Description:
Layout: H1 2-9, H2 13-39, H3 43-90
Amino acid sequence: MFTQLIYRLGSNPKRSLKFFFTGIGIFVCAMGLFALGHYHDPAWQKAGLAVLFPALGIAGYGYVGIFANRFSQVISARLAARQAFDNDKSK
């Protein structure tokens, strides 16, 4: 079940990278709103806070997808090595 989830999350690394960079871009916009609120009306900080949480969620989802892709490659290599070891052992 865990490996199926890892394979599903890491199945499309380009899409995960796109989500990650989109989230980082929105995060930068949120930080800009925070800075704007520091120098002008504090309501901009509230807008930045409202944008910050979705940005972190989108970037986090992308990062989990990238990690899952790398981890699925490790799982596949481990299974291939185990099968090769079992084949050599049975001979």
